Amino acid sequence: MAQQTLAYRRLFSLPGTRAFTAGNLVARLPMGMFSVSAVVMIAGSRGSYALAGSVTATGLVATGVAGPWIARLVDRYGQARVAVPATLTAVLGSLALLLCVHEGAPDWTLFAAYAATAATPNVGGLSRARWAHLLRDDPAALHTAHSFEQAADELCFMLGPVLASFLTGTFFPEAGTLTGACLLLAGVLLFTAQRATEPPVQARSKGPSPLRSPGIPPLLACFVATGAVFGSMEVVTIAYADALGHRAAAGVVLALQAAGSCAAGLLYGAMKPAGLRLAQCLRAMAALMCLPWLAAAAAGSLTVLAGALLLAGMATAPTMVTAMTLVQRRTPADRLNEGMSLVVTGLLTGIACGSAVGGWAAEHLSPAGAFAVPAAAAGLAVLIDSVPVPGGRNRPIADSR
């Protein structure tokens, strides 16, 4: 434990890292708030969960499309020059959605307003780019930084929905969206104000885009499959809890999966990554994702399922950290933010597909049998990774250059 604490203490002893991390965390917390807040706000006002789901799905698709273009602008002009106006656009979109709902505007205005939130910059990617710049000569410390960032992702997506539910239920339906917009703007302003740690803009190379870099397309396919694990697990867990008459507890059960991933990410960050391969992480994830399926089928208990999800979540962070490290090392330095944003696009695509397939399985199979979907998605990631490709994608991350 002392050694693990020392690794993170050294990480944040670097000048400026605490300041940009504080802004980064504030800006990322709303990412777990916006969808829940929008669904509660729209469904409460219009009486239609179908409309609320369609609006949030539109925002998800728009984010996946716009993300790489915004990241490309960041690579070309710098973080502060692009992230601040992009965030202002996204905040105005959130406020427009709030006003349209409050004033009873036509349904199409909700789609237009929420689509504007796709301008939200990938703050997690911006933070990872700063670590890559600061620790470019220290692979072990960079591994710790990537692990911390993954743990921060899990923490924000664990706390965000809880905070959104509390705000919308305690105060007024628009409170979650309003608070999220304020946190996003304040966090990005604090983050981009730390100019000393901002990576310098590099001259544009004539190399291929990250999407055509050797080894990147199969990695992105792995991220799509991993996103399908996340999306399907959320839907089938809610359906399973609902079948047991405990739908309100589904959020707590899912939070345990994120908690397991967060804890594993922090522990993984203090380990030396030498000799570890992505294939090993994916196989561990595929094996552990079978636990919820077995627990749901054999026990029929939400408590047992919660324990299985806690264990299953522990394979997520190491897998994501290892894959993100490989993406970073396969991406041209002048297009790092674009490469990181493509990862987000892959994950969002997988989440959307996983949610759809998981929902179908929960309705047409059985709530317990539907847990086969995330297990199958994890297995698909293993199969994708097993296909040999040029570029040495399956080498240990410590040996990847």
Automatic annotation (TrEMBL):
The chain crosses the membrane at residues 21-43, 49-70, 82-102, 178-197, 218-241, 247-269, 281-299, 305-327, 339-362, 368-387. Keywords: Membrane, Transmembrane, Transmembrane helix. GO terms for molecular function: transmembrane transporter activity. InterPro entries: MFS, MFS_trans_sf. This is Transporter. It comes from Streptomyces bungoensis. The lineage of its organism: Bacteria, Bacillati, Actinomycetota, Actinomycetes, Kitasatosporales.
